[in-house]
Amino acid sequence: MTDRITRAERMAQPTARDAVRAVAKNHGACLRSIQLRRTNTQTGDVDQVLIPCGATLADICPPCAERAKELRAAQCREGWHLDTEPIPAAPAPDEVQAMWVEHRARAQADRDHAEAAAEDTAELAELDELDELITDLDHEIRRSGLRGNADPGRPRPRRHRSTRRRQDAPDLPKRKISPHTVGRTYTAPDGKTFRPSMFITLTCPSYGKVNDDGTPADPDSYDYQRAARDALHFAALFDRFIQNLRRVLGYDVQYFATIEPQKRLAPHVHVAIRGTVSRAELRQIIAATYHQVWWPSTDTVRFDGDRLPVWHEPSGRYLDPETGELLTGWDDALDAIGPGDDPMYVARFGAKFDAQGVLAGSKDSARCIGYLTKYLTKQLGDCHHPATDAQREHEDRLAEALRHEPCSPTCANWLRYGIQPRNPRRGLVPGACKGKAHRRDHLGYAGRRVLVSRKWSGKTLADHRGDRKAWLTEMLGLPATAPTVYRWEPVLPGDDDYMPLARRLLHSVADRLAWEQALTEARRRAGDALAEEVSATGRAA
Ligand SMILES: [Zn+2]
Ligand SMILES: [Zn+2]
């Protein structure tokens, strides 16, 4: 393989890079593969392994994004119509799980490094992403039963104030939640049994009449503040909905949900649930579901324009430049919310919803899974491209409304209202918070695009990935991965064996071609075997 690559490399002039990328894309090869050095600790053999970057956005790596989307579709399909309780199995540790541990260690090191070096808010925003990554990796490791061997790194303390208000109980019939997750079975008069599931779409309320192109009929009266706040708290609201759904139906309802923007740029959520709920019950649950945001009031703007709070190094707090007084701390501001006060905001769904029953293996089921995963390779803000001035202006006005809304307790925007954000740091500027929710491509929603309950399929994404790998291995008649002990190390620029991107790209294409060929061959063999069997049966008959 090395010879072939070297030859190919010679032929690949810099101007041919785009052509190679196009070929790679066609063959589903990762455009930004990561190079790992794999050492067999028993034999000392070293080989280079390219692993796909695993991007979920087509902007970054279209082939990986497409694979990630297919994986989500497989996950959705597998959990939707389960007729037995999923039991998550703990697989034996193997090299793949060892690799997760390796990634975890690297991510922790990156995070600690970033935290130590962080000087501005952009770098601090990256910490959130690293934290998210570490949480994901911990999940993978815990599932693989290797947590004890992994370096857990420094524990990351999270403070939860007891002052956080309890959410009021909604006005709904309440049943005890039985632990089962599988929906009811129905028996038809002819004795046939079926177990329907559901596809539900929940939307935000109206903020004003909109035209067919998603723009407001009257931009001046369109309620951009509510639109911004509902988007910011959409994930929490969805969570409340699921709690209420479980309470009303009386069992541990499982869901696979994806968040997408509507044309008016408000989020909506498509939900596949296991089991059914009547339209009447659903209407009742939606009407009774709300999320109260117990944050300090943002009614009064205290600092704006050039007059902004100033960082005071000795106290690690911000102060009012005119009076020299420290701003109210976050916890104190929360404590000051009195028993008679209203929440800063109450998020609710709109009354409009969509619900349909779906049977396992039906055409409807495939169509709905298509809806559920349709936009997963794009950021929210890239799903609808503004084509007209009116659409661009609508997007601008929403972005402007989101600019000053606090996105979280640590948001820089709290300074505008005279409150220290939680864990204040130097360099915070109200109106310039780097939190994801404020970014144009997020439209106010900073949460995960796919929300899957724990007992949906009883598997993690990594398990689903493993299933696909196992299927391929079997199809190709390859031996399964030997449980040999490997040591994995990232190969970095400057290392002797480091492959530059162009070379990795060619390797990835060569690997994909080899796979495709082997798969075609395996399919042909399977076809031949089947044909032989058929003709043998024919002869026998
Ligand atoms: Zn990739
Ligand atoms: Zn923010």
Question: Can you put this structure into words, describing what you see?
Answer:
The protein is α+β, with helices and mostly antiparallel strands and 541 residues long. It has 3 domains: 7-58 and 461-540, no CATH class; 95-147; 196-452, no CATH class. The protein has helices at 2-11, 17-26, 62-80, 95-117, 121-143, 224-232, 234-249, 279-288, 330-335, 363-373, 389-404, 461-475, 501-540, and strands at 34-40, 46-51, 186-187, 193-194, 197-202, 255-261, 267-273, 290-293, 310-312, 317-319, 345-348, 353-358, 450-452, 486-490. It has a 5-stranded antiparallel sheet, with helices on both faces. It has a 3-stranded antiparallel sheet with strand order 2-1-14. Strand 3 and strand 4 form a beta hairpin. Helix 6 crosses helix 11 and helix 7 packs across helix 8 (279-288). The chain starts with a helix and ends with a helix. Residues 145-165 have low confidence and may be disordered. One zinc ion binds at residues 407, 411, 413, 433, 435, 438.
